[in-house]
Specification:
It is built from ten helices and two strands; from the N terminus they run ααββαααααααα. With 215 residues, the protein is mostly helical. It has a two-stranded antiparallel ribbon with strand order 1-2. α8 crosses α10.
């Protein structure tokens, strides 16, 4: 399905990537950005604290110049901007904006980060690991934040697991002979620890065990 190119429809599609309470802020951010374009792909839907959002697979939008962006956007709007550009078609742009938002404690940031964890750019996966040190800390705010999201979106996380395995096998097996040593696997296990702590029990596994044993 091709997403509409009409500016008003593109705006609606991007607003739908955020909780409804942020609609005004999202529109302010879009007003500060060059004309928007979306990839010819369906958005992916996830649940964020009881509300369904539809996040674009890719966007094709030039980054705003600093003199256009900075005077107009601050706080939440800056985070929204970084979230949108984390879906950019250029991996270097995705990484740059990910690094600006990954440490945010806003629940609506989480699906963008988890989506990036299932992509093929190794530098992005490593940046997520650096930006989320709390995932390794039992009871931390980051563990609760990511554990709650994954618990609400099991099918979405299962797809990320399978994609991480696929990209490792296709692109990185030569460098990381064992899946357990691959940074993507390390990140998956951190997410898994978060959701196991959240639900207080086992969680289905859709990727090889890092130690080679059963899930």
């Amino acid at each position: 399905m091709q997403l509409p190119k009409d500016p008003s429809n593109v705006t609606s599609a991007l607003v739908a990537a955020f909780p409804t309470r942020l609609a005004g802020d999202v529109k302010s951010v879009l007003a500060a950005m060059p004309e928007a374009g979306l990839a010819r792909a369906m958005p992916f839907e996830v649940e964020v604290q009881g509300e369904t959002v539809a996040i674009p697979s890719r966007i094709y939008i030039e980054e705003p110049s600093a003199d256009r962006e900075e005077p107009r956007l601050a706080g939440t709007q800056q985070v929204i901007l970084h979230r949108l550009y984390s879906r950019h078609h250029d991996g270097r742009v995705r990484q740059r904006h990910l690094e600006q938002m990954v440490a945010s404690d806003e629940p609506w940031v989480v699906p963008f980060v988890v989506q990036l964890a299932g992509e093929y750019v190794l530098e992005i996966i490593e940046a997520i690991g650096r930006g989320l040190p709390g995932l390794a800390v039992p009871g931390s705010a980051q563990r609760r934040l990511y554990g709650e999201f994954i618990a609400r979106n099991p099918a979405f996380f299962a797809r990320k697991e399978r994609r991480v395995v696929s990209y490792w096998s296709c692109h990185y097996r030569w460098k990381y002979g064992a899946f357990g040593t691959y940074p993507g696997c390390v990140l998956l296990e951190a997410f898994r620890a978060a959701v196991v702590e959240q639900v207080g029990g086992r969680w289905p596994r859709h990727a090889p065990h890092p130690a080679g044993g059963p899930g």
